[in-house]
Specification:
CATH topology of the largest domain: Rossmann fold
Strand content: 15-25%
CATH superfamily of the largest domain: Thiamin diphosphate (ThDP)-binding fold, Pyr/PP domains
Radius of gyration: 24 Å
Distance between the termini: 67 Å
Number of helices: 21
CATH architecture of the largest domain: 3-Layer(aba) Sandwich
Largest sheet: 6 strands, parallel
CATH class of the largest domain: Alpha Beta
Structural class: alpha/beta
Length: about 550
């Protein structure tokens, strides 16, 4: 049997160690699907929508640091991947979309070829750093390698490869594909400058972002924090870089007013792998890091972009932290009184935020954490539960165990959790609002088909709860945010996923115990109407207590 372009794609994925790909079969990718299955080294996960599949590939990549792959069809199939690629680009996630294209002899002719997509490359380029489209079978291998090289050089980013259908069938030869060799050298003069400034300071803080986790530098970060006796604040994407039950961990509270006030005495802020995202309404753009800002990032465009730096270091986080640790051969205690102020602020903020949850929701949160293994992945969609406790209060203990939509989109959480659970094989939990869950609820069928070890918690308030709250704050009324109550447990059962609706803390705990015991997926429909209300504080313009029974 001849070796074709489709065989090359299957072979290349195997050479890269890709164990799973997500996809939807089509006439314009059938050769690739067939080749993957014939080779037998990569398992295809059949999703129900290309956007969900791309989000799943993203969750797969974030939970492991490996390449996430979605195989789509040309035209409508590829346009469906764009939102997933947008989220991956926002989160610096290495997601590759492989798609088809019209036959080369018809490409660019405008003859109405089925699924014709003449502007597919520029469409993909709007959300990918590198897109390739070979015009001859001899170009396929180099185009594939070029996309991989770009995705795995510097800051992570998604990439895409479109392959005309005739090239998928065309004969070719096997070629070697590999990840690029990373050059993680550092500038000794820059490292020396960082070390000297850290030595001369006595009130230091560290702000650690997702770049530390992406670089696999959690141990190096923790070692430096201990040498400096230094409080560690994280971004939401940096959660898990240090266990949140570690005494040095402040957590994802840099943007909290109480914590921000407490750190103002710092003479040095060491920021690693974070771009200081400014948030909704640009609300955090003026929260200048205290003291001299030392910023380390693998992407030079991020250094000094949001805040002026005293020392900027263009480097991989692991390489930079290794070099700094090597130059600090002694412990440099932080000012004890300064640290104490931060610890007291941390404990006060955590307590205050917990109090806002009312009587029921802290018990729900504690039950999940107590029953879930430390190394399980905890995924959040953008929902009231995520804003109020999932993104900050729910303890995270290790890197790549916390996943959330970096772009702030609603809907990606569920498919991302599907990818994370498949990638790790461990029990994974996703907390979701009902509005966002409806975006990709059909992936329940995917979860059932593959017996994915996933617990889906849908916090059901019959609408877009966060937007409903914002409307009430800003306009004094609500509109277009009430969606009606959906029986999600019944929906899940209809697709083969066991489920239960719960209306109390005790019922939730019992359902969660059941979910932990079974082999595959389980859905818990949390009817928020029957739980005590929580205070919502997404954006601190004014405080409003919202009774979800209303």
């Amino acid at each position: 049997m001849s070796y074709t372009g489709a065989d090359f794609v299957a072979d290349a994925l195997a050479q890269l160690g890709v164990e799973h790909v997500f996809g939807i079969v089509s006439i314009h990718n059938m050769p690739i699907m067939d080749a993957i299955n014939r080779l037998g080294k990569t398992k295809i996960i059949d999703v129900r929508h290309e956007q969900a599949g791309t989000h799943a590939a993203d969750g797969y990549a974030r939970a492991t640091g490996k390449l996430g792959v979605m195989i789509a069809s040309t035209g409508p199939g590829t346009s469906n991947t764009v939102t997933g690629l947008y989220e991956a680009e926002y989160g610096s996630s290495r997601v590759m979309v492989i798609t088809g294209q019209a036959e080369t002899k018809f490409y660019g002719k405008g003859l109405g070829y089925v699924h014709e997509a003449e502007n597919q490359v520029p469409m993909l380029a709007s959300v990918c750093r590198r897109v390739e489209s070979p015009r001859h079978i001899s170009q396929l291998a180099s185009c594939f390698q070029a996309v991989i090289n770009d995705m795995f050089t510097g800051r992570g980013a998604p990439g895409a490869l479109e392959i005309p259908i005739d090239l998928q069938y065309a004969e070719t030869e096997s070629q070697t594909v590999a990840y690029p060799e990373a050059d993680f050298s550092v500038d000794d003069n820059e490292i020396d400058a960082v070390v000297e400034r850290l030595k001369s300071a006595s009130k230091r803080i560290i702000v650690a972002g997702g770049g530390v986790i992406a670089a696999g530098a959690s141990e190096e970060l923790q070692a430096l924090a201990r040498k400096l006796d230094c409080p560690v604040l994280t971004t939401v994407d940096g959660r898990g870089v240090i266990p949140e039950d570690d005494d040095l961990c402040v957590g994802n509270y840099y943007n909290s007013a109480g914590i921000y006030d407490a750190i103002q005495g710092a003479d040095v802020t060491l920021a690693i792998g974070t771009k200081f995202a400014v948030g909704v309404d640009g609300q955090f753009s003026f929260q200048t890091p205290p003291g001299d800002l030392i910023q380390i990032d693998i992407d030079g465009n991020m250094i000094g972009r949001t805040h002026t730096t005293s020392i900027g270091v263009l480097a991989d986080a692991k390489a930079a932290l290794t070099a700094i640790n090597a130059s600090l051969d002694e412990t440099l205690p932080n000012d004890g009184q300064f640290n104490q102020v931060i610890w007291e602020a941390r404990d006060g903020v955590r307590h205050a935020m917990r109090e806002r949850l009312g009587s029921d929701w802290p018990q729900v949160m504690d039950a999940i954490r107590a029953k879930l293994p430390r190394d399980s992945v905890f995924v959040r969609d953008q929902t009231i539960s995520a804003y109020n406790w999932g993104n900050q209060q729910f303890p995270i203990y290790g890197p790549r165990t916390s996943v959330n939509p970096t772009s702030g989109a609603i809907g990606p959480g569920f498919p991302m959790s599907v990818g994370a659970a498949i990638a790790t094989g461990r029990k994974t939990v996703v907390i979701h609002g009902d509005g966002g869950f409806m975006f990709h609820a059909t992936e329940l069928a995917t979860a059932a088909q593959y017996k994915i070890p996933l617990i889906v918690c849908v916090f059901n308030d019959s609408g877009y709860g966060v937007l409903r709250w914002l409307q009430d704050m800003r306009f004094g009324r609500i509109n277009e945010t009430d969606l009606g109550k959906v029986a999600f447990a019944d929906m899940a059962k209809s697709m083969g996923v066991p489920a239960q609706r719960v209306a109390s803390v005790s019922e939730f705990e019992a359902a969660f115990d059941t979910a932990m015991e079974i082999e595959g997926p389980y859905l818990i429909d949390v009817d928020m109407e029957h739980f005590a209300p929580m205070e919502i504080s997404v954006m601190p313009k004014k405080k409003v207590e919202v009774d979800v029974k209303a």
